[in-house]
Each structure stands twice: as structure tokens, then as C-alpha cells.
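Note to self: keep these together.
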Amino acid sequence: MRCRCDSKNFRNPDRTARECMTRHSRLPAGGWRLAAGRARDTIAQVRILLFSGKGGVGKTSLAAATAIRLATTGRRTLVMSVDPAHSLSDAFALEGDLFSRATADPVAVADRLWVQEVNIQAEVKRHWGDVAGYLSAVLRTTGLGEVEAEELAILPGMEELSAMMYVNQYQRDGRFDVVVLDCAPTAESLRFISMPDTLDWYMRHIFPAHRLLVKTVRPVVNRVSPVELPPDATFANIQSLSRRLEGVGALLADPDLTSVRLVTNAERVVLRETQRAYVYFLLHGLTVDRIIVNRVLPDRVRDEFFVAWRRTAETVLHEIDAYFAPVPVSRVPLFDDEVIGMERLGWLARQLYGESEDPAAVTRRERAFRFEKDRHGGHVVRLSMPFAAKQDIGVFKKGDELIVEIGTLRRHIGLPTSMAGLVPTRATLEAGTLSVRLEAVS
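Structure:
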């Protein structure tokens, strides 16, 4: 791969990607931390672009191309993979071993452009030491070897939480102007964005009682049980991790800062998953500002073999335009070769954004849910719920939260003080909007 340093068109045939990495300054291991005493409100806000979609639709290439375009506009840009099956390094054609961990921390690959692939093994040592150490010790009591116990001590969600901590950290320290997230396929992406709410719920409702209970019974249980209860350092580790995530939920829900770009193909199965993902992201409070249809057959492809494919694609493309309106839909043609390396990723960026469009521009600010009063003075929660059917939705209230279920997803929505003491009395679904009326019950 060619380096994109040292000239206006970012081409230098005498410098390889590996040499480029050493030429540019590299962020320190463990990332950056907010300097003590530095006020957060004095730091420029970081723009976050999240690319998601069904596996194999081309999210990584589009995320990488977007990052390249942003870097050429003078913005300090990080493109970060939160997919356990990383391929960002491959997309940029970076040299290195097949299982290299060189990109576990941000690595400069061009002027104002860094790449990072979150590595769970490195993150366990860096952030999860006490938790993983306790789990590993427990597993070893079952007869597992040390290596096997360490592998099994990596729990589902650790990688997503680690990636989310980086997002929050980069927002706080202001080292980057834009962070482009190359997410895992849809299901894992939804788990990624739900992690802050899940951890927050656990920390508020379960953690205090759990910690107190274990502290109370630990002296007795540890004398009679073959497996010791976790020491308080384990709970302190969890609490520390929770603090690192404070505010990230609001960051993701702010349409001026975070936007989701859903990548799809002109195929019915992929479109169906994209529709579900759209609803799920809205339910979690994120703003989808663009649908990208990747690998559209170019007009010049007229071979008889593709006649049926073209007919299906044209039908699906019309459906995509109608389904997602007024969200903009972009079409990217199928290239005549795989998109790897800076040059071809640059071509992809021009196909997606033209010569002058700013990928970081805020184009949609519609929030997924809002709290209102109707004409009768009643309180109403309105949620955008396109593609949903009445029979797929469940609504109930618990404490100061309104809980909405759709399909296999459940979302806890914290209610404002004025609505926390009310109960839901009626729910209607009209024109893709779910309206839940709350009233006082004597």
C-alpha cells in the first residue's frame, strides 16, 4: 500500500505503509486520558459516524473510504473497528502478520488518519484485570488449565464495553475531530449500542445490593466453599469501568454528534434486516442519517446472466427509496475489482460523496422519541416506529421507566420527573409513530 503523506495528492511511491506508521506520531499505549482539571465544556465535540449493516455488505470499505475523505479535509480522523472479526487493516492493505496486534492502539496510516482495531486480549489486561483474574481463578478450580481458564474468562460484552470506553475517552480528550466506527454485523452492533444502558441499569438496580451481599457473607462462605466469592477489588474494577462510560449514552443519542449510516445491498433479504436495524437503532435513540446501497450493478453490465439480478435490484432499489424516505439513500456501484488500499478506497469515497460533499455534515436531527403534551393537557411519549406492526409491540412501565418491546428487543426509556408518577393508559400506532399516553391514576 502507498503512503498518503508529504504531498497534496497524498502519494509518495517511495514510502510504504509500515514506514509511514513509524514516521507519524503514534498514540501512547492505552490511549489518551483527559488531563486533570481540564473542563470538558472547553473541548471541541467529536463527530461520531457509525457504520452498521448485515455481514458482508461492505461496511468496512465504506467506513475506511469515509475516513480517508475526512482526513483529506484536514480533520484528525480515527477509523476504529469494533467487530471481533477485524478487517480494517486488510482494507487499508497494511503490512503485518495475519494475527498482528499492531493496531490494538491507534496507528497513523496517513496524514491525519489513524486506524484502530479493538483487541480483546489487550483490553482484558488493560481494563478488566480484577474481573478476569477472579473468573480465571474460579475456572481453574474446575480443573481447567491456566490458558483455557484465561480464554473462558473473557465474557460476552467485554469487547463492546471496551470499544465504548474508547469512544467516550476520545470524546473527552479531544484528540480526534471525527471517529468513524466500523461495527460488527447488525446483531452485535445492537448489543454494542445497548451496552451503556444495560450497564447503567445494572449499576443502579443490582450492583449496590450485590456488592453489599457479597461483602456480608464473604467471610463465612470463603471458609466453607471450594470457590471463594469475588474480593471487593473485583467490584471496584466494575465500578471504575462504569465511570469510564458515564455520559456515553447521551453522546450516542445526540444527533449533532452521532449519526448512523446503514449499509445494505439491493437484495430482499438484506433489505429486511436493514429495516429491522433501522427500527432498533431508532428505539435506542440514535439518528440514522443515511442509507447506503452498496454494490449496485452498473448500467454497463448487460450480460444475460445478470438480467434477473438487475430486475430484482431495480425493484428493491425503488422499495428502499420509498421505505426510508425522507432519509437520504446513496447508491454505490459494484467495482470491477476488490476495494483494497488507499487508491481504490479513495475512488470509493468519490463514488459515495462526490467531489465536495462533507461526510461529517449533520443532515438529520430528528430524535427517535420525544415527550409532549397533547391538546387535552395529557402527557404523551412519541416514538418513531416505522415498519412495525401493532402485534409486534409491547409497552409497560416499571418504576420511572417506560419499557418498550419490539421483536426480541427491549428498550428502557427514562421518564422525566413530571411523567415518572404516571401510568400508561393508551398506546396507538399511526403512520409509523407509536404514541403512549400516560395519566395519573387515583
